[in-house]
Write a structure and sequence with these properties.
Blueprint: E1 3-4, H1 6-13, H2 22-28, E2 32-35, E3 38-41, H3 53-60, H4 63-70, E4 73-74, H5 86-107, E5 112-118, E6 129-134, E7 151-156, H6 161-170
Antiparallel strand pairs: 1-7, 2-3, 4-6, 5-6, 5-7
Helix pairs in contact: 3-4
């Protein structure tokens, strides 16, 4: 299952392979940390230390929303986005999508959903963020991108970016 907002279509069609910032890649290579069915990037595991899961459910509605919020990575924390066009920043985001897919598929047997998004016109320059959550029955973070002002791409760990891009070219 993949979803794209209309704004993200053009970026996916123009996608090219780019390097992930090395500091971020080293952090991601640590893998994932799981506690009480919550999965976060290993470098975020300290965020789970003092959480009360009843409060999490009351605030986020379910574990999916909490994971998506907790796992968010802002690319401008790892690159100076003023030196990149929005297309270049989103390309780094697509490279991260593939990296997270590969890491997840190598380390885990279950499924996850990965979300890449960008405001496109931020007062702070080109930006994008990426997050993921474990795929759970009856817990869906986003299922429709109609009227979404952001450029958004949502995919599972098993979706091929190339196949999605090829399908867009046919349309």
């Amino acid at each position: 299952m993949s979803l794209l907002s209309p704004q993200m279509n053009k970026f996916l069609l123009m996608r090219s392979e780019v390097a992930i910032p090395s500091t971020l890649e080293l952090k991601l290579l640590k893998g994932f940390y799981e506690h009480s069915d919550v999965i976060v990037f290993d470098f975020y595991k300290a965020r789970l230390k003092y959480w009360d899961y009843e409060i999490i459910i009351s605030r986020y509605g379910d574990l999916t929303g909490f994971e998506a919020n907790t796992n968010r990575i802002h690319l401008d924390d790892y690159i100076n986005t003023e030196n990149f066009t929005i297309s270049e920043v989103i390309n780094i985001g697509f490279s991260l999508v593939q990296f997270i897919q590969n890491l997840w598929n190598h380390l885990r047997d279950d499924e996850c959903t990965i979300i890449l998004s960008s405001d496109l016109k931020s007062e702070f320059g080109s930006n994008a963020s990426i997050t993921f959550h474990k795929k759970r029955p009856n817990q869906i973070l986003v299922d429709c991108l109609d009227d979404c002002p952001q450029a958004v791409f949502i995919c599972n760990n098993s979706d091929s970016l190339q196949s999605i891009s090829d399908a867009l070219k046919i349309m």
